[in-house]
Design brief:
Blueprint: H1 3-16, E1 25-36, E2 39-50, E3 59-62, E4 66-72, H2 80-90, E5 92-95, E6 98-101, E7 111-115, H3 119-124, E8 129-137, H4 144-152, H5 161-167, E9 177-184, E10 188-190, E11 195-197, E12 200-202, E13 204-208, E14 216-224, E15 227-235, E16 240-244, E17 247-251, E18 254-255, E19 261-268, E20 271-279, H6 287-293, H7 300-307, H8 316-329, E21 333-335, E22 349-352, E23 358-364, H9 373-390, E24 398-404, H10 412-420, E25 424-426, H11 428-437, H12 444-455
Parallel strand pairs: 2-6, 2-9, 23-24, 24-25
Antiparallel strand pairs: 1-2, 1-4, 3-4, 5-6, 7-8, 8-9, 10-13, 11-12, 12-18, 13-17, 14-15, 14-19, 16-17, 19-20, 21-22, 22-23
Helix pairs in contact: 7-8
Length: 469
């Protein structure tokens, strides 16, 4: 490993060092293939550093060719740094199911990359720091069809390797390099149930119980009619602390104008950890949201359409309705053009920003490549582009968007191709964040601009897009 790679590892640990003791719930998910009777090659693994209990089940699945599962990190008897050192220095990891060997390039080389603000966290409004260690290309080790059929016959059966890896939050089976990730979650979070009423707000924060509450801060911006009218911060000493749900819960007090909303940021030791919006449920500055709530109280139907909060989504078309409603609340002009049998060749949704920039939107409750969704989206975007150009509107920006009900991890195998095509991918995490933004008066043009800029570095020229299929 090069000195630069080692520096990235040190940068990761120095970043999380102020709160590393807060990670009381650490789990390891892994996927390895059998090399011979005595050796398993570790192809994918994630160490989750969390302050709350994990939803990933502890399990172990073994077939003639593979072994995969999830277990409590404390079973290894290692610190997080010792875990990383074992991989980097020895290329091996001793686990409850035996020794796993991390495959490296022929010269023994491996590399490291540190992302202190992973996009998946940014989309959800929280700090997510990820250290990635990459080894050998693993396409020679992956026999997808063979593994799928072995898993169908396993004692704990799975339909495919992708289904198993999704349950373990490892993403899909990818043919890139063998990879180990250390995922460090945020340690402080804004309480979205903070009390706001009349001219007083009580913003509150959850903090990992082992951390020093005096180092915690709630920063806030007070919004009225889309403009910031006040900024400030509540220090840890100004908050009233109590224990709630096994976390320290700190509550502050801020005087606000009637009907104002607050954008709050939870920080620890000078590092922003999580952000979110809080508002008086009886008042809203977003007239579109208020209008919709007249017929969908507390947006319960919309949340079911998007997130299946109360009952399973019976019709994929409901998800399209949910996306259209959400975009309308965000201030876009929306046409659900693909909602009828006579317009089946059209995209699910066409939307425009106040300046006329266009979003061509496809929705799916499954994977991104299902039913040729990506190819169809590119074709339909090109059709709109040609019409705009021929009508004198070629100056308008055009953004293809695919919205999925699945999480980013569940569609990770498809993300690279979508990004290369310049398609904006909106996952469940992004939908959650966008729902939060409807509390205030949103700026659809700013939302469009951020989305547009996020895909431009990855986009190919449209004339070459179809060659990827």
């Amino acid at each position: 490993m090069s000195p630069n790679d080692k520096d990235r590892i040190e940068e990761f640990f120095s970043t999380i060092d102020p709160w590393i003791n807060a990670y009381s719930n650490i789990g390891l998910s892994y996927f390895a293939v059998q090399k011979d009777d005595q050796k398993y090659l570790l192809l994918q693994a994630r160490l989750f550093l969390n302050t709350a209990s994990s939803s990933i089940p502890e399990m172990s699945v073994e077939t003639a060719s593979i072994v995969a599962g999830h277990f409590n990190f404390s079973d290894l008897g290692l610190s997080v740094r010792e875990f990383v050192n074992s991989i980097v220095e020895n290329g091996t990891l001793a686990t409850p199911i035996g020794k796993l060997v991390f495959p490296t390039e022929d010269d023994g080389r491996m590399s490291a990359y540190f992302d202190p603000f992973h996009q998946e966290g940014v989309a959800s409004g929280n700090r997510l720091s990820v250290l990635s260690i990459s080894g050998a290309r693993k396409y020679t080790f992956i026999e997808q069809r063979k593994f799928d059929w072995e898993l169908k016959a396993a004692i704990t059966p799975f339909d495919s390797l992708d289904e198993l890896l999704s349950l373990l939050v490892l993403g899909g089976a990818r043919n890139d390099s063998a990879n180990i990730e250390v995922v460090a979650y945020h340690v402080a979070a804004i309480n979205f149930q903070s009390v706001v009423g009349g001219v007083e707000a009580r913003p509150s924060v959850f903090l990992a119980k082992s951390l020093d509450s005096s180092k915690c801060q709630i920063g806030y911006r007070v919004f009225m009619h889309g403009k910031v009218v006040e900024r400030g911060a509540l220090q840890g000493e100004e908050l009233a602390w109590s224990m709630q749900d096994n976390f320290n819960h700190g509550v502050g007090r801020v005087e606000i104008p009637q009907g104002a909303v607050l954008h709050c940021v939870a920080s620890y030791d000078g590092f922003a950890q999580h952000q979110g919006w809080v508002a008086d449920p009886a008042h809203s500055q977003n007239s579109r949201r208020v209008s919709l709530e007249a017929f969908d109280d507390r947006l319960e139907v919309l949340r079911d359409y998007l997130f299946e909060e109360q009952k399973p989504r019976k019709n994929a078309r409901d998800f399209e309705f949910g996306v259209a409603w959400l975009m309308w609340m965000l201030g876009f002009n929306v046409n659900q053009i693909g909602g009828t049998g006579r317009s089946s060749d059209a995209p699910d949704i066409l939307a425009t920003s106040p300046q006329g920039n266009v979003l061509v939107v496809e929705c799916t409750t499954g994977l991104l490549k299902a039913e040729n969704k990506l190819a169809n989206l590119i074709d339909r975007t090109e059709s709109v582009r040609k019409r705009l150009a021929s009508s004198g509107n070629g100056h308008l920006k055009l953004l293809p968007v695919i919205v999925t009900a699945k999480t980013k991890d569940e569609v990770k195998a498809d993300l690279e191709q979508a990004q290369k095509l310049g398609i904006l991918v909106v996952t469940q995490e992004s939908l959650t964040e966008l729902m939060q933004q409807t509390i205030a008066t949103p700026d659809p043009e700013a939302i469009f601009t951020r989305a547009w800029e996020s895909v431009q570095p990855k986009a190919d020229l449209l004339g070459r897009l179809t060659s990827a299929f």
